[in-house]
Write a structure and sequence with these properties.
The chain contains 13 helices and 12 strands. By secondary structure, the chain is α+β, with helices and mostly antiparallel strands. It has 3 domains: 148 residues, Beta-Lactamase, CATH 3.30.450; 70 residues, Signal transduction histidine kinase, dimerisation/phosphotransfer (DHp) domain (Helix Hairpins); 160 residues, Histidine kinase-like ATPase, C-terminal domain (Heat Shock Protein 90, 2-Layer Sandwich), CATH 3.30.565. 31% of the residues are buried.
Length: 395
């Protein structure tokens, strides 16, 4: 049977409609579905039985439709009478080429999907475990006469990001609530009889001040992490003398009056090439690394800062002599709020965000973060940055 001469015009109109949806709604998934749905409607303008007679139950209803659907990144199935008459390339890759011609409930082996595919009305639901145990999909089944179009959208990354967001909010709330409860408790005690004892009053006020500063550090780290993540896709473009910056940071620690300031030893290659970087962020990275080493290294042991050439780039390493970290904890040290010993971390003033900030700054600068540790010996954290293409340093 020869296709209608108006068929190509209908298909073109459907695709144009889809593009318009994308431009108006800024939703290209909706655009793709609009284009596919319109094309299916155009191709099925002929009687369904004639289309099946032309192509057979296990073959595409129209070559044009097959070409359009293969261009869609999400898996798409076209069903006739409950059987798969067409599966695009993404669907065949997910479910197997053999699904064409099968009952849809056999092609998508999932109890929730089977119930949705058996229904006559449109369905929109989430199914888990299709293709892999940890995969999450959104199944959308649209109905048009005797035909159904089933689209699968991979929601795995979205679900993981949502879990991270929920965990982050819960952890941040907990970290803020703990010092806030202490501040309120001691303030209420001071308002009662404890305020009459000068020694007790001074001790309680010192605790309130310490907890308030702890909250301040946490809020500052949260804001800092938010700014770094906002800039992650905007690469720095200015050459920077990293050797000079390291020397300045080491001098700041020496002048800060910290009891461990004398333990910091910096060794920098005088011929260090410049890197392309954000000065404020790289300074924060160095402060976090040196500060962590001072907190968790044993008192009186050295905190060694070294910087030198490494494989065409610049490697900055900070080593402490502390208790070290067990191998199973190393991959998680850069997670937000992850602590090996929460009590000790809070005692030394840690917020649980220091290495997460280091990781994000390193990633923004196309750097590679490397953590090595030996129990009872200490930990070395190194970041390798690519050298700047231009040796001309501005500002």
């Amino acid at each position: 049977m020869r296709p209608s001469p108006r068929l190509p015009l209908a298909i073109a109109a459907a695709i144009v409609t889809g593009l318009a949806v994308g431009l108006l709604r800024a939703d290209w998934t909706a655009a793709a579905l609009a284009a596919v749905g319109g094309t299916v409607a155009a191709l099925l303008a002929r009687p369904v039985r004639e289309a099946i007679a032309d192509a057979g139950p296990a073959a595409p209803t129209e070559p044009a439709l097959a070409a359009v659907l293969d261009a869609v990144a999400d898996p798409v199935l076209v069903l006739t009478g409950g059987r798969v008459t067409l599966a695009n390339a993404a669907a065949r890759a997910l479910l197997g080429a053999h699904v064409v011609g099968e009952d849809a409930r056999v092609a998508i082996r999932h109890p929730d999907a089977a119930e949705a595919l058996a229904a006559d009305e449109p369905r929109d639901l989430e199914i888990a475990g299709l293709g892999a145990r940890d995969r999450l999909w959104r199944l959308v089944a649209a109905t048009g006469g005797d035909m159904r179009v089933v689209t699968l959208h991979d929601r795995t990354d979205n679900a993981a990001a949502e879990r991270m967001r929920v965990d982050f909010v819960a952890n941040a709330s907990h970290e803020l609530r703990t010092p806030l409860a202490s501040i309120i408790g001691y303030a209420e005690t001071l308002a009662d009889e404890a305020g009459d004892d000068p020694d007790l009053r001074r001790r309680f006020l010192r605790i309130v001040g310490d907890e308030a500063r702890r909250m301040q550090r946490l809020v500052e780290d949260l804001l800092s992490l938010s700014r770094i993540e906002a800039d992650k896709y905007r690469l720095p473009d200015q050459p920077l003398d990293l050797a000079l910056l390291i020397e300045e940071v080491c001098a700041e620690f020496a002048a800060a009056g910290d009891p461990r300031a004398g333990d910091v030893a910096c060794t920098v290659d005088p011929d260090l090439p410049p890197v392309t970087g954000d000065r404020a962020q790289l300074s924060q990275l160095l402060h976090n690394l040196v500060g962590n080493a001072m907190k968790y290294g044993r008192p009186g042991t050295p905190v060694i800062v070294t910087a030198g050439r490494h494989r065409g780039g610049v490697r900055v390493a900070v080593a402490d002599r502390g208790d070290g970290v067990a191998a199973e904890h190393l991959p998680r040290l850069t997670e937000r709020f992850y602590r090996i010993d929460a009590g000790r971390s809070r005692t030394v003033g840690g917020t649980g965000l220091g290495l997460a900030i280091v990781k994000h700054i390193a990633e923004r600068h196309r750097g590679r973060l490397d953590l090595q540790s030996t129990l009872g010996v200490g930990t070395t954290i190194a970041v390798t940055f690519p050298a700047a293409e231009s040796a001309v340093i501005k500002g």
